[in-house]
Amino acid sequence: MEITNVSEYEAIAKQKLPKMVYDYYASGAEDQWTLQENRNAFSRILFRPRILIDVSKIDMTTTVLGFKISMPIMLAPTAMQKMAHPEGEYATARAASAAGTIMTLSSWATSSVEEVASTGPGIRFFQLYVYKDRNVVAQLVRRAERAGFKAIALTVDTPRLGRREADIKNRFTLPPFLTLKNFEGLDLGKMDKADDSGLASYVAGQIDRALSWKDVKWLQTITKLPILVKGVITAEDTRIAIEAGAAGIIVSNHGARQLDYVPATIIALEEVVKAAQGRLPVFLDGGVRRGTDVFKALALGASGIFIGRPVVFSLAAEGEAGVRKVLSMLREEFELTMALSGCRSLKEITRDHITTDWDAPRPVPRL
Length: 367
What we know:
By secondary structure, the chain is α/β, with parallel strands linked by helices. The protein has helices at residues 8-16, 19-26, 33-40, 88-98, 113-117, 134-146, 165-170, 198-206, 213-222, 235-243, 265-276, 291-299, 309-341, and strands at residues 45-47, 62-64, 67-69, 73-75, 103-105, 124-128, 151-155, 227-230, 248-251, 282-285, 304-307, 354-356. The protein contains 13 helices and 12 strands. Helix 4 packs parallel to helix 13 (309-341) and helix 12 crosses helix 13 (309-341). It is globular. Glyoxylate binds at residues 24, 129, 164, 254, 257. It is found in: Peroxisome.
């Protein structure tokens, strides 16, 4: 069967993967309301296309933290990719590099920062969880720096792991033939079986619940890399992130896996963008499955978007070729959306190109 859109990979992944693995990737927290809402909210944003504009040439290139990329579509950190495919993060890194975009490697990857760097050139960011042992954190950040990673994406919404009931039912744990490669030498690479979710127990034992804004400052004392704060969804925290020296914000609800009943990220985006006042770039993570979604995020002020689940599902289905196909389909759909909206470059995408169900009614122009 020919794949014609990103969402079709999920059903293939479900067929191919062990239930424990598929459920880990696919599920959200508790009632999974936010999981549905991350997708559904996009359908409450409609287009106001402009016509009769010469769209014979379309430029999708952009820069992120000074790095030029081919399109504003990047890869979010997703953990334990070798559960999806034997090549795991290696395949994802090669696909991202071939597409001319940025891959973010998870702290909990099944390939190390050095291994991913060995796949060849590419712009890569490193997602960081802050462990109770700060020496572990400092060591990891230094290794990412040495391996040529260009930024740290600090996850700030996980002092504790969200309640993911599928993982509890399945007694989720990392398969015994895999390790969290970045922690292998530190005796933190394995996950014990638990009476609920092995990952929840691992997080409770290792991740620092005391993490606060002062740690964002501390991080800047141990690395020169720019720090993106991942997991901001309010104006208040946006303003604090700016004061704390963040280089950018990733509006994220952790793929709806942490606190259920937070708004969809596409809904939270505008509040964050307005509070940021252009002082730092704001990116969207969560729910993007179509090129139209990318356009909507940019129209609401995002500088780019990150995709997560589409990467692991396509990786499970077709390995590196699957991830490449996801990136090329999103690219083509986004280019088509730009053309049909009358936009030739990213800077031409404006708030006036969309209307949302939370907008005030537009005044009717008098004839």
